[in-house]
Design brief:
Elements (H helix, E strand, L loop, with lengths): L3 E7 L5 E7 L4 E6 L1 E2 L1 E8 L3 H12 L15 E6 L2 E6 L8 H15 L3 E9 L5 E6 L4 E16 L2 E9 L5 E4 L4 E4 L11 E12 L2 E12 L1
Parallel strand pairs: 4-15
Antiparallel strand pairs: 1-2, 1-6, 2-3, 3-5, 5-8, 6-7, 8-9, 9-13, 10-11, 10-12, 10-14, 14-15
Length: about 220
């Protein structure tokens, strides 16, 4: 049995699917579907003693109560000792489960710096977007439904927005060294600002097809 397992799920588009498992020896593996990198991540827990203490405190306590939530709300599930606590996403519960929940959230954020098989988005100053593989493993992705959106932000306001589909691509086994450049949608970059890109497509996580959104930005 793992030391702790964590999952964040939501049905509102884009659907969230974030997973974390920590083995008893302190090795962690994770999956992220939305962010600056998507895919599989892994590595050792930086402070295993602190995580063990948080897990032990939660294991001795009653499960936190989950309030009534709207249908599209994201929910986090954390399993310790065969019991599963449900909490509202990004809301810290009261009581002894709080440190364990916060530790799992923080650890998943840290794991993004240790990709196993992940895809990130590199945004160029002319609006081109390049998808690049990170890590030593292979991630299967489906680019037939690839869509890219660009938003130019200036003085904390949206100055321009554009989007396009790039349906002429198919399944890719993305491994070390893989990248693909996407022609940008037409967007007016006059006046400069911060150009933010979002690329949405589908990743194959061991037979489960997961909608993903990878983001990047550049000053223009």
């Amino acid at each position: 049995m793992p030391l702790v397992s964590y999952r964040r799920q939501g049905n509102a588009p884009p659907p969230e699917r974030e997973l974390l498992t920590v083995d008893d020896d302190g090795e962690a593996s994770g999956w992220r579907s939305i962010g600056r990198a998507i895919g599989r991540f892994g590595g050792p827990v930086p402070d295993l003693a602190a995580l063990r203490a948080a897990v032990a405190a939660a294991d001795r306590a009653d499960l936190p109560s989950l309030p009534d939530l709207p249908p599209d709300a994201s929910v986090e599930m954390i399993e310790i000792g065969g019991r599963t606590a449900h909490v509202q996403a990004r809301v810290t519960p009261d009581g002894p489960w709080s440190p364990a929940v916060e530790a799992c959230r923080s650890l998943l954020d840290l794991l993004v710096a240790s990709p196993v098989a992940a895809i990130c988005a590199v945004v160029l100053t002319d609006g081109r977007v390049r998808l690049e593989h990170r890590g030593s493993g292979v991630l299967s992705i489906e680019l037939a439904s690839l869509r890219v959106s660009l938003t130019l932000w200036r003085d904390a306001r949206e100055a321009a927005r554009a989007g396009s589909a790039d349906p002429g691509r198919g399944r890719v086994e993305a491994g070390p060294g893989w990248s693909v450049e996407i022609a940008p949608p037409a967007i007016d970059l006059v006046g400069g600002g911060s150009l933010v890109a979002q690329a949405s497509f589908v990743a194959d996580d061991d037979g489960l097809y997961v909608p993903v959104v990878v983001m990047g930005d550049v000053a223009v």
